[in-house]
Amino acid sequence: MRRLLMSGCIAAWLLSACGSQPPVPDWQGNAHGALQSAVAATLNGNTRVAEADMARARNEIARTGQPALLARAELVLCAARVASLDLAGCPAYEALAVDAAPAERAYAAYLYGKGQPADVALLPEQHRGVARGGASAAALHDPLARLVAAAVLLQRGTLVPADAVDAAATASAQGWRRPLLAWLGVQLRAAEAAGDAGMALQLQRRIGLAAGTSSP
């Protein structure tokens, strides 16, 4: 597991279908498209669409009879949820964890702020600096990975205000409504706690616009 979804070949981690490889089986291409759509729908806040697309991905992967592959796919979707600060866990992965590879188990622990130092080498390379505590989320180039890293820092209690600002800016630049609303909410709570009424009002306007509850 050396790269996260949305960077380069979106399904390289799951499908190993990039580069000069033989033609991929149908299930791989179908699972790739369905998983990509599920992640996009999750980031856009389209829960019903995401569930339908993920059901298609699961069906395709189930054709292989390899629960480890399905566990990996579940983590891809859960990473998109973590990026949106849905930190309630990944039950679909947990049901398959007994068959997951060590890299997937390490990544699952990292996603929810429970990573262990001994497992850092098993993580995607771009996340290792954050896992060690020596890098900020903003140092990651991939937008989704950056949001995931920021969420990990938040769970650890080591997120700094600049990370929250960067996470919201990253989600905004990508047009990802769900994580944008989540990270604007983090900023709003910080502004309110600091007594910054002007910033709080500005953030409320942004939240209203992104949520579709106010006019541009």
Describe the secondary-structure layout.
Layout: H1 12-15, H2 26-43, H3 47-62, H4 67-83, H5 91-94, H6 102-111, H7 125-132, H8 143-156, H9 161-174, H10 177-194, H11 197-211
Helix pairs in contact: 2-3, 2-4, 3-4, 4-6, 4-8, 8-9, 9-10, 10-11
Total DSSP helices: 11
**Structural class label:** mainly alpha
Tell me the total number of β-strands. Answer: 0
N- and C-termini, Cα separation: 42 Å
C-alpha geometry? globular
Order of helices and strands: HHHHHHHHHHH
Count of the separate structural domains? 1
Unreliable stretches covering 5 or more consecutive residues: 1-11
Report the C-alpha radius of gyration, rounded.
18 Å
What proportion strand? under 5%
Give the helix level as a range of percent: 55-70%
Query: Quick one: biggest sheet?
Result: none
Overview of this structure, please?
With 216 residues, the protein is mostly helical. It has one domain. Helix content is 64%, strand content 0%. The chain has helices at 12-15, 26-43, 47-62, 67-83, 91-94, 102-111, 125-132, 143-156, 161-174, 177-194, 197-211. Helix 2 runs antiparallel to helix 3 and helix 3 (47-62) runs antiparallel to helix 4. The longest helix has 18 residues, at 26-43. The radius of gyration is 18 Å and the shape is globular.
